[in-house]
Design goal:
The structure holds two protein chains of two kinds. Chain A is of the alpha/beta class. Helix content of chain A is 33%, strand content 15%. Chain B has eleven helices and 14 strands. Chain B has three domains: 47 residues, 2-Layer Sandwich (Uridine Diphospho-n-acetylenolpyruvylglucosamine Reductase, domain 2); 110 residues, Uridine Diphospho-n-acetylenolpyruvylglucosamine Reductase, domain 3 (2-Layer Sandwich), CATH 3.30.465.10; 112 residues, CO dehydrogenase flavoprotein, C-terminal domain (Enolase-like, domain 1, 2-Layer Sandwich). Classes of the chains: A alpha/beta, B alpha+beta. Chains A and B meet through strand 5 of A and helix 2 and helix 5 of B.
């Protein structure tokens, strides 16, 4: 597969430099030929058709496009796809299994953590990165960890509740395990 | 929005980076964390012919202390490495700034040294480095040289590196005596650039200030070096009078402009307030500790 601007999936024009990269996306290795200038957000959305990663502001300001790269949250609109070569990327599509929601997704459902839903994938991935480092965060710590993710519905109160709900559920699951 | 076309190199050594920079005569740009460069590429404010990605170079992620207490920060040390660091106890100015740089995702990826090189007049780290008397180690075809942080920022988004040099490390000297200091920043929302910020770093012997450093972000066309202004504290102890004198001197050194973030006089007032607050906080915490 080749992914280029203006001509996604088409063969590159003469003289256009492409790189073959292999990125592990949600557990599966994906090999794509990309222009060096291709942004990770566009690799995910256009080439791999994983449109759960949302492009919000396009200027590195809103956090809607947040994904995890090697477990840490990054703005996928501010990372080149070539820089993800050989790394693990997790998107919102990687959270749920076929039969079960991830506890963070459940939390957003239980606590009504979304209104329009546009910021939600980025919120959930920032939350996942937080809970991996800090399974029992305070409300302040949740707010701080989500401070790079904007919600234009301003539904922060319930988003924070959702993450705290998920944290509790994940701690309980870990105790049972 | 996406960048214009560029050629891409991901060399495995600093020497290769320098060779590529040298061969491309100013048309190549080093990519570290990319949290400033990639937005600039997308906006087409920058359209270099080559991008030289240094993320694949091993051994640059470190930050560590020399036996004499000098802090060394490698070119790929990320903001969050400093935010979660356990060795910044003697560098309160840096540790206080570390969680105020941009937002969590930018801190995951962006680098300390890259931020210095970007030389944004509103950048946090340049202010801390100038206040602390830090240095930037540049490597070029003729080897390494040290550049004082106060000489490194030449103007808005202009640093002192030659086209064929790359900044490989930043160093911060240890305090002589006790290290005290702080960093305060006013931003319109979390993650924004500074409307105004102040970095203060003091070396204190007993209760006498032996060295005083200060720099400001957001209140000039480049990071404002207020080291001379705050040096009136040297030889004195911190008290209401000396704090007032220092805060006024630093505020006078600011060169704020009126813009959408606030008026010139407002920003100058913020600077004076921040310096007063940092110095007063130092007095209060020292009294508590005693």
């Amino acid at each position: 597969m080749t992914s280029l601007y203006d001509e996604v999936q088409a063969a590159p024009a003469a003289g256009v430099e492409v790189r073959r990269i292999t990125v592990n996306v949600n557990g599966t290795d994906r090999t794509v030929d990309v222009e060096p200038r291709l942004l990770l957000a566009h690799l995910l959305r256009q080439a791999l058709q994983l449109t759960g990663t949302h492009s919000g502001c396009d200027t590195s300001g809103c956090g809607a496009c947040t994904v995890l790269m090697d477990g840490r949250p990054v703005k996928s609109c501010t990372v080149l796809a070539v820089q993800a070569n050989g790394r693990e990327v997790e998107t919102v599509e990687g959270l749920a299994t076929a039969s079960e929601l991830h506890p963070i997704q459940e939390g957003f459902k239980e606590e009504h953590g979304l209104q329009c839903g546009f910021c939600t994938p980025g919120m959930m991935l920032s939350a996942k990165a937080l809970l991996e480092r800090n399974p029992d965060p305070t409300e302040d710590e949740v707010r701080w960890a989500l401070s790079g993710n904007l919600c234009r519905c301003t539904g922060y109160q319930n988003i924070v509740k959702s993450v705290l709900w998920a944290a509790k559920k994940m701690r309980e699951q870990n105790q049972e395990a | 929005m996406y960048p214009s076309r560029f050629s891409y190199d991901a060399p495995a050594s600093v020497e290769e980076v320098i060779a590529i920079l040298d061969q491309n005569g100013g048309e190549a740009k080093v990519l570290a964390g990319g949290q400033s460069l990639i937005p600039m590429l997308k906006l087409r404010f920058a359209s270099p012919a080559r991008v030289v990605d240094i993320n694949g170079i091993p051994g640059l992620e470190y930050h560590r202390l020399d036996p004499d207490g000098t802090l060394r920060i490698g070119a790929l040390c990320r903001h969050e490495d400093l935010e979660f660091s356990e060795i910044l106890g003697n560098f309160p100015t840096l540790s206080q700034a570390s969680s105020l740089v941009a937002d969590p995702m930018v801190r995951t990826r962006g680098t300390f040294v890259g931020s210095l090189c970007h030389a944004d007049p509103q950048g946090d780290w340049s202010a801390t480095m100038i206040a602390l008397g830090g240095k930037i180690i540049a490597q070029g075809p003729n080897g390494r040289r040290e550049i004082e942080a106060r000489d490194f920022v030449l103007g808005p988004f202009v640093n002192a590196l030659a086209f064929n040099e790359v900044a490989v490390e930043a160093t911060v000297p240890p305090a002589k005596g006790k290290a005290l200091g702080g960093y305060l920043k006013l931003e319109r929302r979390v993650g924004d650039f500074a409307t105004a910020s102040a970095a203060v770093a003091l070396d204190v012997d007993g209760d006498i200030v032996t060295r005083a450093g200060c720099a400001l972000a957001g209140v000039g066309g480049r990071t404002i070096d207020a080291n001379d202004a705050i040096s009136i504290l040297v030889g004195k102890s911190l008290n209401a009078e000396s704090i007032k004198e220092a805060a006024e001197a630093v505020a006078a050194a600011a060169e704020p402009r009126t813009d959408h973030r606030g008026s010139s006089s407002y920003k100058r007032h913020i600077v004076e307030t921040f310096v007063t607050r940092i110095l007063s906080n130092i007095v209060n915490s020292e009294q508590k500790a005693a």
